[in-house]
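> @MW can you paste both from yesterday?
MW: sure, first one:
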Amino acid sequence: MTPITEVEGRRVALSNLEKVLYPQTGFTKAELVHYYVTGAGVLLPHLRDRAVSFLRYPDGPEGQLFFAKNVPPGTPEWVTTAEVPRSEGPARMVVVQDLASLVWAANLVTEFHTHQWRVQDPERADRLVFDLDPGPPATVVQCCEVALWLRERLAADGIEAYPKTAGSKGLHLLAAVRGASPERTSEYAKALAVEAERALPRLVVHRMTKSLRPGKVFVDWSQNAARKTTATPYTLRARPYPYVSAPVTWEEVADCRSAGQLEFQAGDMAPRLQHHGDLMAPLLDPETAAPLP
């Protein structure tokens, strides 16, 4: 029998809580749900008003992985959904607005991925993102070097960037922007990626071509496109361990000398939040949003 719990007046079914999702650590589905519930105070503001793509891994990261962009079958009627534009026609997607919806989504065993715009205005980007992806033997150490260059270059345009781990191999840089379409934001991001490649030719490539990437950092600017989504701050990732896409300080980026320094698992987050608070909180303040040059 599937247990039912009540969350803020909503009845939420929770299933297979004893299932081990990450065999290397014994991390269970119950622990995954607990992680999302206890982290809701910082996670929910970054999900709110954004259509969500779910990367689901119901049997753990070593099982089947699949993206769910449309509203999943069986979604409770009280879960907020929104119609979002797509080139092939509008689609309806989930918008995680409250704790009950977060618990329901966590029970599906998910990573959370969001667009760089809010559902109220899909024609206006309010986020700029760079995904720094290292091509072996490059690691997050080289990503940090590129991130520091991008930070200074963005600052020259009046844009403040905030770093987080990808929760896999690299880094993400996020910034709050205003007044630009996703197309314009993508153009700007691409121009900076090309500039980074010229400035750091031994380190950076701005094209996705795999043959160009060994030993370099791919500065992926394309996730600014209206249709693309990026791992949300604080989401768990479908990796061999319960790694988190964790906000980090610029001091941690500057001091990174080995890949393990910027690897954070679910159990690391409570003490980090107690010490740092939400390092991505400035992204939620409209006053911090900068116009693109």
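MW: second:
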Amino acid sequence: MINQAAVFDPAAPLTVSPRRSQLFEGDSVSLSCEEDNISAGWTVRRNTTRGTRTQCGDGWGKPAGSTCNISSLYEHDTGVYWCESREGAASSSIQLTVSGGSVILQSPVLPVMEGDDVTLSCQTKTPSNLPAAFIKDGSLIRTEPAGHMTLHHVTSSDEGLYKCYISGDGESPSSWISVSEKYSTMAPPTTFLIDGTVAPPPISAPPPISASSGLVLRLVCHLVVFCPYFISTLLMVSLYRQRSTGRDHPVSMVINETEQGLDENYDDIITVVTTEHHF
């Protein structure tokens, strides 16, 4: 088994070419550690029935840097493979199955993402599109005439042990298919202060004010400032008119007094003109 003291490091995942978890006896395979830091010294290791934690080149495979090439596989090469650094850091592991039979199931090596489509193929040593029955956890799913089955929008319920069967050729080994949860959002990173406490989340800036919102805001401000002056002006005009109305005479009285004054003046003018004429 993998060293329990090893620290798993996703920085150097193990990739397999060809990308499938089952292979025929006599096939070749290449396993590579995709490392970012070459100085870490990543190598391929495995656990099989013949040995545990053995390194590429130690009786199996041919190392080439962080890659291990196996030119001809045997059934005893079936096992768990992973990448490990000099310091003991390890990548996630994968299961490879080498079949001595005539049928294999081509399935993803790595866990598939929730919501993705996954295609399984039932293959013989001589590639053909023969009808195949697909089985999950011991129960028949369905039979496909071309030997290919697609699982649409997989969920955690699709996890399980899969195998296939071709009439006249036999049954493939079983392979476990894992489904990883797809996260729609990512949590913000946690910041620790010098004293070890967790820093509070940053305060987000308020959203910018749009042009229409700014116009409405200015209009409201003008109304708030203008309304008191407008109301006070109306009150002053109303008070002034009330006071003026209390002092002045009615219009009809003014007109009568004016007419009376004009009549008196007219009589005086007539008297003067008559006196002058008699003279």
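> thanks! Confidence is low (pLDDT under 50) at residues 1-6, 190-197, 249-255, 269-279.
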